[in-house]
Amino acid sequence: MVVLNRIYTRTGDGGETALGNGARVAKFCTRVTAYGTVDELNAVLGMARLHAEEDIAAALARIQNDLFDLGADLCRPDMARDSEAGYPVLRMVPAQVDRLEAEIDAMNARLEPLRSFILPGGTALAAHLHLCRTVARRAERLTVELATTEDVNTPALTYLNRLSDWFFVAARIANDDGRTDVLWVPGANR
């Protein structure tokens, strides 16, 4: 259980922060940037939820919780030492990826195939979901970069990759099942 009775600690005033294993690192290190971007995504997703109803709202709430799991996973390096933590270390698991894939498949079954690229927009929810998609892609790029120098839990990377796809398909659902998608017209303003 997390207990936060004091919000500021002053321990980061010198430009360092603590990782999940207690190690202190610069606030601009790749790991911190990756999980910080996941946190940014969660905040953007909170804005999207303001426009969501029923099934999509419930799915977005599940994803927000997953994003906290993902941040917890990314903030703890050295997976080989998880057993030494003295408590169960929270890591992303394949079942979280599987759920996203099943939801993508179910939403995509309602949609006509794309015959054009689409522009981010349409309904307020769709526009916000497209923003979520782009922030998810940035979080994925940063996590991939992190994985070039440090161990990263494979389901964490896979989850981020699927998540941007989920947001894309959900944005189409939010645009009246794709009927009001804003289509790209190549060279329209030449």
Automatic annotation (TrEMBL):
Q: Name one GO molecular function term.
A: ATP binding
Q: In which pathway does it act?
A: Cofactor biosynthesis; adenosylcobalamin biosynthesis; adenosylcobalamin from cob(II)yrinate a,c-diamide: step 2/7
Kinase: present as a keyword of the record? no
Catalytic reaction(s) noted: 2 cob(II)alamin + reduced [electron-transfer flavoprotein] + 2 ATP = 2 adenosylcob(III)alamin + 2 triphosphate + oxidized [electron-transfer flavoprotein] + 3 H(+); 2 cob(II)yrinate a,c diamide + reduced [electron-transfer flavoprotein] + 2 ATP = 2 adenosylcob(III)yrinate a,c-diamide + 2 triphosphate + oxidized [electron-transfer flavoprotein] + 3 H(+)
One GO CC term, this protein: cytoplasm
Q: Has keyword Zinc-finger?
A: no
Checking Pfam families in the record gives: Cob_adeno_trans
Q: State the Gene Ontology BP annotations.
A: cobalamin biosynthetic process
Principal subcellular localization: cytoplasm
Which UniProt keywords are listed?
Answer: ATP-binding, Cobalamin biosynthesis, Cytoplasm, Nucleotide-binding, Transferase
Cobalamin adenosyltransferase-like domain: residues covered? 7-173
Give its E.C. classification number.
2.5.1.17
The record's annotation in Gene3D superfamilies points to: Cobalamin adenosyltransferase-like (1.20.1200.10)
Record PANTHER family: CORRINOID ADENOSYLTRANSFERASE (PTHR12213), CORRINOID ADENOSYLTRANSFERASE MMAB (PTHR12213:SF0)
- Indicate the family of this protein: Belongs to the Cob(I)alamin adenosyltransferase family.
Descriptive protein name? Corrinoid adenosyltransferase
